[in-house]
Amino acid sequence: MPGQPGRPVGAAFDALYRDLRPRLLGKAALVCGGMPALAHDAVQEAFYQCWRRMNDPDAEPVRAWDAWLTTTVVREAIGLSRRHSGSIPLDDVDRPARAPEPAALMDVKEGYLKVCRAIARLPLRQREAVALRHLAGLPTAEIARTMGIETSTVRALLSQARRTLAPLSQELRRMGLLDGERGGEQ
Amino acid sequence: MTHRQNLRLAGLPAEPTTPDELWRAYKATDERLLRDQLIHYYMPLVRYVADRVSVGAPVHAEQADLVSAGMWGLFDAVRRFTPDQGVRFETYAVIHIRGAMIDELRRLRRWSPAGDASLEELLDSGAEEHDLPGAAAEDSGAAAEDRELLRLLAHAVHALPEREKTVVTLFFYEGLTRVEIADVLGLTAQAVDRLHAEALTRLRAALAAPGEDPFDAGGDLVRDMLHETEQALSRTVTRTDTDDALAALWRRIASDGQV
């Protein structure tokens, strides 16, 4: 049934889905601290909202659907993480019960899994600020609006998270995981 | 010092004296009782200015505090005023009285021309916390964010131009008054005010400006790391996964009657 023949918007939607899903899943999985199941839910929810929005004659037009989806996925992933907060200890990343697609993470290099764990261990507000900045690409003012806090607090959260994450990025660089593996989507 | 009864008891002639006569007598003799009589005569000016200053004051100040500060201004004005130079004493005095009251307001509020209480509170709290926080990566919550903000602020203060940095440090960390700072730096109080205002503007911008943190050398590396990780995770998505997930999505859309 995918494809919805005779419905141009359905075909366009399919194309958008196939095109963006892997990248969005990667973002969502990272926001969720490496939990593919949560990431999958976040992406499905974002596309579901996307479909509704596309078919809502009253909604404001969206100029760039990929940017809209990116922001929505990151927000959904944050929301899911929040609902699961306290139940994401770091070793859950590898536990089949909480990560129903362990095979999905098998090919992921240990260095990247470390990043997932580090993200999972960040306090939620820091994680949210980092995700909105680096994964959704929002400017500080927009992050402040989204989180309902002062821009100075956003900067404090980002700076705090960065001090936790910076040593890890040095480690990844030493492992050769930061340069040279670019552009390998799919 | 300003009660008529006291002046009379002190033996001053009770007969009405015109201000002009009083001024001439006072400036000729520098007599303290004449000075007090002049102060008493012009006292209504203090209340007049206090009413106006308190209306626009950015902080709540007791009328009595303003009046007592204003009295010093009046006292100063009476001592310094030179009659017959084409300036009415009232005009001259109001400037002094007002200045004294504004100094008092600044003292009450620790100097806030821009009305930015939060930044100044932060600077104050930073001044109290002698060793600014070191790495506290593990702890979360509001206290940690405050400390982080203080750390950012300390960096921002450090990055100020030399003279602005000195003014901010002397004022917030050493508790000097603007006049004392002016003395130390060999500047006028107005120049100190200006440096102070410029420093606050810069600090506010440093804390609030969107964009990258200027003290943040490792920022790009962190962003790169997140992007690489994101891509590594997305590479694990296979085509079959996507087909199945898309089918599931259409089923959900159909079941909700959204098609």
Can you give me a brief rundown of this structure?
The complex is a heterodimer of chains A (186) and B (259). Chain A contains eight helices and no strands.
Describe this entry's structure for a reader:
By secondary structure, chain A is mostly helical. Chain A is built from eight helices and no strands. The relative contact order of chain A is 0.12. Chain B is mainly alpha-helical and 259 residues long. The longest helix of chain B has 25 residues, at 32-56. Chain B starts with a helix and ends with a helix. At the A-B interface, α1, α2, α5, α6 and α8 of A face α7, α11 and α12 of B.
**Helical proportion of chain B, percent range:** over 70%
Mean pLDDT of chain A: 78
Q: Structural class of the helices, strands and pairings of chain B?
A: mainly alpha
- Tell me the radius of gyration of chain B: 32 Å
Flag low-confidence runs of chain A: 1-8, 87-101, 180-186
Q: Any idea what the radius of gyration of chain A is?
A: 17 Å
* Separate helix tally of chain B: 12
Number of H/I helices of chain A: 8
Quick one: how many beta strands of chain B?
Answer: 0
Q: What is the approximate shape of chain B? A: elongated
Alpha-carbon distance between the two ends of chain B: 89 Å
Number of strands of chain A: 0
Question: What is the first-to-last residue Cα distance of chain A?
Answer: 24 Å
SSE topology string of chain B: HHHHHHHHHHHH
Question: What are the main properties of this structure?
Answer:
heterodimer; A: 186 residues; mainly alpha; 8 helices; 66% helix; globular; B: 259 residues; 12 helices; disordered N terminus
